[in-house]
Amino acid sequence: MTDIDNKYADGFPFSREGEDFKQGLSLMREVLGEESSEHIESLLDNPLFGDELGYVFSKTWGALYEREGLTLKERSLILMGTDLALGREGPLKDHMKVALHAGMEPKQIIEVLFQTVFYLGAPAMVLGLKVANEVLGPEIKEMLEQKEQQNSNQ
Known about the structure:
78% of the residues lie in helices and 0% in strands. The chain is mainly α.
């Protein structure tokens, strides 16, 4: 790495050598998987907006999530509420996955969605339930199978 690269490693213009980027990429791979990580990395090669996207990614997934003061679970609660308020389906999916990764239970995520109905309205909750159905699909299936097994044992 040159002195110039080192100077900008955690600032703008963006550098893949920056600590924020490395931390963010590691967390994203854990939470969203390799496919999403590879997709994001491919966007960083775009000559028109790659540096800007890399900078934003580094500061959100990297620096912001690493700050002290809030746990990853608490941050995911805030971000899910923000996503619902703004009607942002894509980020809501990601932030639900972050919440699960941070130890939140599926029923807690549904409770978060229900809490919003009186503040954001039913459409926001319905959007949240739609996204939750996609994200929590495997967990919902497991819950249904457990319920069926309990019913058959009675």
